[in-house]
Description:
The protein is of the alpha/beta class. Helices cover about 25% and strands about 30% of the residues. The protein folds into three domains: about 1-85 and about 175-180, 3-Layer(aba) Sandwich (D-Maltodextrin-Binding Protein, domain 2), CATH 3.40.190.10; about 90-165, Periplasmic binding protein-like II (D-Maltodextrin-Binding Protein, domain 2); about 185-305, ACT domain (Alpha-Beta Plaits). The chain is built from nine helices and 15 strands. Helix 8 runs antiparallel to helix 9 (about 275-285). The chain is elongated, with a radius of gyration of 21 Å.
Amino acid sequence: xxxxxxxxxxxxxGSFSHEAAExxxxxxxVIPCARSAEVFDRVGSGSAHAAVIPIExxxxxxxxxxxxxxxxxxxxxxxxxxxxxxxxxxAAPGVKLSGVRRAFSHPVALDQCRDFFRHxxxxxxxxxxxxxxxxxxxxxxxxxxxxxxxxxxxxxxxAGKILxxxxxxxxxxxxxxxxxxxxxxxxxxxxxxxxxxxxxxxGVASEPAYGRLIPAGANKTSIAYKLKNQAGxxxxxxxxxxxxxxxxxxxxxxxxxxxxxxxxxxxxxxxxDDEPARNALRHLGEVAEFVxxxxxxxxVGPTLG
Length: 305
């Protein structure tokens, strides 16, 4: 019998990442990690076969640390998944809503439940390191005046009692998760991606180094690139896609770690590993200081909620 895939997540069991991992890889064995860097370390070392990480939320935006780690580490995106985020107030058995004075959760989750706190002024929001971890804490400590805010998975995992369900402000709250794996041993250079030009499958220029990591049906590509400080550089970088009628589904910039006041552009475009995409990336390499292909994978359609 084939062993279950070991999948690293940031956070505790019962978290939204845990839920996403089980939906993306049914039957997987989840490895909880305290820090995001540990998730990437496990994938890099091979102690986890893959990882499932949140990359952006429809309300809170990009998970900055994960975006930075995708550039810094030798991993490859193989799939994406959108998960509806439903926040629930839960406590230890026997605790009643009327007795709750503190609600623990991750700061992003607390911020997404402002209306709840406005209607329950007697309950103070209390930042915690993890949504599921907050439920683990209040149930494990049997706190009589506290609750945690998390998904239903946490209630099942830690035997929490749901006091109120669906307390998030916006019912169209989604998080986009990525399935990442380690790039193969045939990858080019482990580090210094800031100075390498990478082709559509990773590696240098036209080397097809990561073809085996591209899943069937892949029709979306994520890249990161840094432009030279020249007039019109951004226009030129976008024109390589426009000239080939390649649609961009996302573009944003982030500071480049270790190089103050320099920025990396993150782009998702709707093509797989085909000739127009390869030509666009070769063209982009002529105007960019570096280009890194983060992944080529099947796109998930729009979620209407």
